[in-house]
Amino acid sequence: MIRQFLFGGAISAVNIGLHAMVMMLLIRVAQIASERSKAQASQHLVLVMIPTVLVLMITHAAEVLVWAFGYLLVGAAPEGADRVYFAFVNYTTLGYGDVVPVARWRLLGPITAMNGVLLFGWSTAVIFEVLRRALDIARGGRH
Fold this sequence. Notes:
This protein has 143 residues and is mainly alpha-helical. It is built from four helices and no strands.
């Protein structure tokens, strides 16, 4: 059980680091874009929010790939299973249950789900912050 927590914690830490780097970059780019924007308020929101959400979706997909690679390293998915699909199902907490981990790595599924839930929550907070800043600038404030 300890090895599952250690390995799951290591993969989670990689994803948290990846997420942190993207979050810092996103907020900075959104801030610069907002300061330089000459677009009307509604256009500005679209120009800032669409790329923000797309980048976050790409980041989450990359984090799923990190989990899939982790499953490959330790043989957590049953033979013949699609590890990317398995990682997506766990990470998003979809939980179809059509693929289950091998018994000795069964805790990686819930650890993956916990990591996904936390990172989705973090992304939601960042989306809200980018939106708040964009609205503030659109209303004439500069922060």
